[in-house]
Amino acid sequence: MAHRWTNTLTRQDITSEASFLNRRQLMAGLAAGVGLAGVGGMARAQEALEPNSYEDITQYNNYYEFGTGKGDPAANAGSLTTSPWTVKIDGLVDKPGDYAMADIMDAMTLEERIYRFRCVEAWSMVIPWNGFELADLLAMAGVQDGAKYVAFETALRPDEMPGVRFPVLDWPYVEGLRLDEAMHPLTIMATGIYGKPIPNQNGAPMRLVVPWKYGFKSIKSVVRITLTDSEPPTSWNKSNAREYGFYSNVNPEVSHPRWSQASERMVGGGLFAKRQPTLMFNGYEEEVASLYKGMDLKANF
Ligand code: MTE
What we know:
Helix content is 23%, strand content 21%. The protein is of the alpha+beta class and 301 residues long. A hairpin with a 4-residue loop joins strand 3 and strand 4.
């Protein structure tokens, strides 16, 4: 790992976080040989973000292993044992193995990232995550040359997860990213919210967060990360390929077959709050659009 930032950001430091991200974007941009277009946009976007309450973020959830109601995860996820926890990292890596969560936490540097979070169901929040870049975790395992994709898997524990009795999805929950998406500096593994350990209902002890994609890509309680050379299967795509694609980038111009994605309801906005327009790539267009240059985003939804 070439870089190691020690940074303890608070919500009062949104401006400094923006400049911090600018600096990383600058480094990433220089490394990739791309220009600096958009760095100012990121700063503006970050400054405007007002996080949802801890209550909103931890009481209104999707975690179908604990039930399909929005309050079910908060009510039922207490039964999940999250310590000790082991993450298997395997496939096309130099150092495959079972990594203890405690060792991962020792090796990684935590940062706060205040991100928009947009569910495919057209609700949204702003969440102050604590976590580390997925790229740093992958570097620990050593990504091999042939790797093109990263596959993720959630724990499957019928004794602790009342929802997996029902065949809502083909358990365990699985997700995937292209390697360049996984290595992008905005992609993090979250281990906390508001400076506290991440609650079980939000995906303890460690869940993926990809802020420019619909929330279902952000897989919870990860037990396995596999580097592969082919596109991995993903849970919602397996369940309904017509409605949920592999990419699932937030895109106000590409409707879900059953509803528009042009606007969203901000959770906690109150009964009479107006819907707000959904932003291309959830507001991270300047940072990530180059990943999809030349791709038909309607065909690759
Ligand atoms: N991960 C697992 N294992 N199981 C799930 O049901 N739901 C997804 C995603 N990750 C889900 C999951 C969906 S649809 C969303 S919108 C987000 O988690 C919700 O995250 P949150 O409850 O922390 O807001």
